[in-house]
Write a structure and sequence with these properties.
The structure holds two protein chains of two kinds. By secondary structure, chain A is mostly helical. Chain A has one domain: Orthogonal Bundle (ABC transporter involved in vitamin B12 uptake, BtuC), CATH 1.10.3470. Helices cover 75% and strands 2% of the residues of chain A. In chain A, strands 1-4 form a two-stranded antiparallel sheet. Chain A has a two-stranded antiparallel ribbon with strand order 2-3. In chain A, a hairpin with a 5-residue loop joins strand 2 and strand 3. In chain A, helix 3 packs across helix 13 and helix 4 crosses helix 11. By secondary structure, chain B is α/β, with parallel strands linked by helices. Chain B has three domains: 234 residues, P-loop containing nucleotide triphosphate hydrolases (Rossmann fold); 175 residues, 3-Layer(aba) Sandwich (Rossmann fold); 73 residues, no CATH class. In chain B, the strands form five sheets. In chain B, strands 6-9-10-3-11-12 form a six-stranded mixed sheet, with helices on both faces. In chain B, strands 18-19-20-15-21-22 form a six-stranded mixed sheet, sandwiched between helices. A four-stranded antiparallel sheet of chain B has the order 2-1-4-5, covered by helices on one side. In chain B, strand 19, helix 16 and strand 20 form a beta-alpha-beta unit. In chain B, helix 4 packs across helix 5 and helix 13 packs parallel to helix 15. Chain B starts with 8 loop residues before the first strand and ends in a 10-residue tail after the last helix. In chain B, 45% of the residues are buried. The chains are: A mainly alpha, B alpha/beta. At the A-B interface, helix 9 and helix 10 of A face helix 2 and strand 8 of B. Chain B: This is Simple sugar transport system ATP-binding protein. Chain B: Pfam families: ABC_tran (PF00005). Chain B: It comes from Lentzea albidocapillata subsp. violacea. Chain B: It is a peripheral membrane protein. Chain B: Its main location: membrane.
Chain lengths: 320, 510
């Protein structure tokens, strides 16, 4: 371990641990089950979790700044609802997309402003946002609304062929673009570095003369925007809008980010960690479906154990 | 010093009140370009508040701030920085999770195509660091460096921009002599370039060495503004504390008159812990002040923690009143009448968000046990007694500990332990970072307690203080007890020689 810590800066260790975990889990599956070690299984990890990857990217901003956003799952549901009913009402696709993205970011902006102006814990404010968004879904319709729009169905079902006969969907491309954009903003721009500064020590960041207000509100706008985009991807994946979509998905997103090595206290973590976290969750799901005899709730149990282990590991690392 | 240029900063009639505290009352302050101006005063005199009013952290209730001839009202530190006021605060206010380069340049980093130009940023940071003689990797994480280096990084951040006013709030408290000299060299260079420097320090030597002019505050009011050359130390101290220096001499007399004898209250026989401190013998009698002298890292705190049971000894034994006592942890030490006032008063001692009263009551109640609640009247009586005995300011039991100055927080911490009426009181650096007035009061309190029969183990990095106050001085070096001296006949030089004896002490900082 000493030789490893000498070569790799300790701040990369949690992300590295997650990647190692992913490789181990995947390796285990490949040895145990026929057909597990194929390119398409990996591609499916991305296809089935594209929306979660986008959610995790947005959540990374919020958690890095020292906050939390519990509303993302409900915003995904609301976005599927707006998409489905908008298309049903015959709105053009660009208008639907614009409306969805605007709804998500406005909700995020409102929550950010309330958190900042009234100095209330993000937990409570975004919990309120979660109920609000979920309620709005049923205001639009209590039924599941299916998407019949041609363009949407075409985009959803188009398979992009990669070398080696592996196919992915447009969802995957969009998710990866979001990850790239998030990495650029967080790691290469002043706004991103200020997110880290605020998460590391907010009063220091303020005394350093950094725009802490803009950052503290901005991360919720970004998370809202990512949630609505994830909602669009989820609409493409499910081809329906429903108020009971994505129940509890905010917890999956938080779990992925934390398993990816981002410190819940803020200030430490990487966008790629969130991606690795999503892939670990996806691999566990795939393993359980390959096993065939295990029920799907085993996924939850494994995620719970992993989360606990990672929090404990982080804790000991911070102490050092 | 010439009077010809107009002041770059002029603050007139500044008043500011916090809940329960009038922090500043009608204070005037001037700062001229090309001077080093020392802001003097005890802890709680309002120095930090005045600085924070200038730098946009606080907004004054009344009065005006004029910068370069124009009225300004900063609503954030960012605005003040933009207007050319750079500040280095007393406690390092940087982000430990970022790199050194980011800490120096974040908010004004070089950019390319909308993103941060990291190579240029590291180059620029290295230049600034080189200017103040620090050679560390700008890409390293700030948390990897010791506090002294972090302080220098904070200074680098302050001078990384063209500033007309540089505020240094106790920048030297974590620097060693060589680093202070280096800092002063930089300050002189900046001063000669026309920067107005506001400097706060508790070290009078430094103030006299570097400053051209000084403003003295006491209890939130202005006492006077002088050219440094016009005031001698005696009258400066008199102005700062508002009373004469007789107290200091009285402390020394008291130490010489005390001649405690009798059996040891606490005796350590071969007590030690591998990696922390080698086995040592030590007797502490009732009514005796034992001083611990040694460099940082010589094992002072480690020794104290063994006596308090905060760390478990792996050899030797501890006797209290001649009977062996097995310390299972601080609880059993407290039960045996041993109290330990930690050097980290913020982290380990006080609950900053509670009032003075609640902090004291907490300790009393803990000592009595939860089953025997304290009557309200006893509480009020005790709180009032200790507020008065220790001269805690503001003398308002409902003031939050967070809002008190360092010296007053230290007094509250002391009071917390005193209410439990300990038989052995271990004081780890009780006077660090506090001013002369509060220091003298704490020293006097120590002698009074000893005269009343409390045994005291006094740890301090300031040898003068240890020599003045202690009946016996235990000298530590490299985690070993190397000598025990009679406090009454020992001088500082003798102790220094013992500490320095053998190999030269290692320097902490590169």
């Amino acid at each position: 371990m000493t030789t490893l810590t000498q070569r790799v800066p300790s701040r990369f260790l949690p992300v590295l641990a997650t990647v190692v975990l992913f490789v181990l889990a995947f390796g285990f599956g490949s040895v145990r089950y026929d057909g597990f070690a194929s390119g398409q299984v990996i591609a499916n990890l991305f296809i089935d979790n594209a929306f979660l990857i986008v959610l995790a990217a947005g959540m990374t901003f919020v958690i890095l700044s020292g906050g939390i956003d519990l509303s993302v799952g409900s915003v995904v549901a609301l976005s599927t609802m707006v998409t489905a009913s908008g298309l049903q009402a015959g709105w053009p696709v660009p208008l639907v997309i614009l409306a969805v993205l605007l709804t998500g970011s406005t909700l995020g902006l409102l929550m950010g402003l309330v958190i900042h102006k009234f100095d209330i814990q993000p937990f409570i404010v975004t919990l309120a946002g979660m109920f609000l968004a979920r309620g709005l879904c049923f205001l639009i319709s209590v039924e599941s609304v299916s998407i019949k729009d041609r363009t949407f169905r075409d985009v959803a079902t188009t398979a992009i062929e990669l070398p080696g006969g592996v196919t992915i969907t447009y969802n995957v491309v969009i998710a990866l673009l979001v990850v790239a954009a998030a990495m650029y903003v967080l790691h290469r721009t002043r706004f991103g570095r200020t997110v880290y500064a605020v998460g590391g020590n907010e009063s220091s960041a303020l005394l350093m003369g950094l725009p802490t207000t803009r950052v503290k509100v901005g991360v919720y706008v970004i998370s809202g925007l990512c949630s609505s985009l994830a909602g669009l991807l989820f609409s493409l994946y499910m081809l329906s809008g429903y108020g009971l979509h994505a129940v509890g998905m905010e917890l999956d997103a938080i779990a992925a980010v934390v398993i990816g090595g981002t410190l819940l206290a803020g200030g430490v973590g990487y966008v790629l960690g969130g991606l690795a976290g999503v892939l670990v969750l996806g691999t566990i799901q795939t393993l359980i479906s390959f096993q065939g005899t295990l029920s799907s709730w085993w996924t939850k149990i494994v995620i719970g154990v992993l989360l606990l282990v990672f929090i404990a590991v982080q804790r000991t690392m911070v102490r050092r | 010093m010439t009077e010809s240029p107009p002041p770059v900063v002029e603050m007139r009639g500044i008043s500011l009140a916090f809940p329960g505290v009038k922090a500043l009352q009608d204070v005037d302050f001037r700062l001229f370009p090309g001077e080093v101006h020392a802001l003097m005063g005890e802890n709680g005199a309002g120095k930090s508040t005045l600085i924070k009013t200038l730098t946009g952290v606080h907004r004054p209730d009344a009065g005006q701030v004029v910068l370069a001839g124009e009225d300004v009202a900063f609503s954030s530190p960012g605005e003040a920085q933009h207007a050319g006021i750079s500040t280095v605060y007393q406690e390092v206010n940087l982000c430990a999770n970022l790199t050194v380069a980011e800490n120096i340049l974040l908010g004004r980093e070089p950019r390319r195509l909308g993103g941060i130009d990291f190579p240029a940023m590291r180059r620029r940071a290295a230049e600034v660091l080189a200017r103040i003689g620090v050679h560390i990797d700008p890409a390293s994480s700030l948390s990897e460096h010791p506090i002294a280096v972090q302080q220098l990084v904070a200074i680098a951040r302050a001078i990384a921009v063209d500033c007309s006013v540089l505020v240094l709030d106790e920048p030297t408290s974590s620097l060693d002599a060589g680093e202070v000299a280096e800092l002063f060299r930089i300050m002189r260079v900046l001063r000669d370039e026309g920067v107005a420097i506001l400097f706060v320090s508790h070290f009078l030597d430094q103030v006299y060495e570097i400053s051209d002019r000084m403003t003295v505050l006491r209890n939130g009011t202005l006492v006077g503004e002088h050219l440094t050359a016009d005031v001698d130390r005696r009258s400066l101290i008199a102005q700062m504390i508002g009373r004469d220096l007789g107290t200091l001499e009285a402390i020394e007399d008291a130490a010489e008159k005390r001649r405690p004898g009798g059996p040891a209250l606490v005796r350590a026989e071969g007590l030690g812990k591998r990696g922390a401190i080698e086995p040592f013998d030590l007797d502490i009698r009732a009514g005796e002040v034992v001083g611990l002298a040694g460099l940082l890292g010589s094992g002072r705190t480690e020794l104290a923690r063994l006596l308090f049971g905060a760390d478990r000894a792996d050899s030797g034994r501890l006797l209290v009143d001649g009977a062996p006592l097995r310390l299972r942890g601080p609880r059993s030490a407290i039960a045996a009448g041993i109290a330990f006032s930690s050097e980290d008063r913020k982290g380990e001692g006080l609950v900053a968000d509670l009032s003075i009263r609640d902090n004291l009551v907490l300790a009393m109640q803990a000592a009595r046990g939860w089953t025997r609640p304290l009557p309200r009247r006893t509480k009020d009586h005790l709180v009032e007694k200790y507020l008065k005995a220790l001269d805690i300011r503001p003398a308002n039991p409902d003031a939050l500990v967070r809002t008190l100055s360092g010296g007053n927080q230290q007094k509250v911490l002391l009071a917390r332990w005193l209410v439990t009426e300990p038989r052995l009181l271990i004081l780890d650096e009780p006077t660090r970072g506090i001013d002369i007035g509060a220091k003298a009061q704490i020293q006097q309190l120590v002698t009074t307690l000893a005269a009343e029969g409390t045994a005291i183990l006094f740890i301090s990095a300031e040898l003068e203080e240890v020599v003045r106050i202690a009946d016996r001085i235990v000298v530590l070096r490299d985690r070993r007890k190397i000598a025990e001296l009679d406090g009454a006949v020992t001088g500082v030089d003798e102790v220094v020689e013992l500490i320095a004896g053998g190999a030269a002490p290692e320097k902490v900082v590169s």
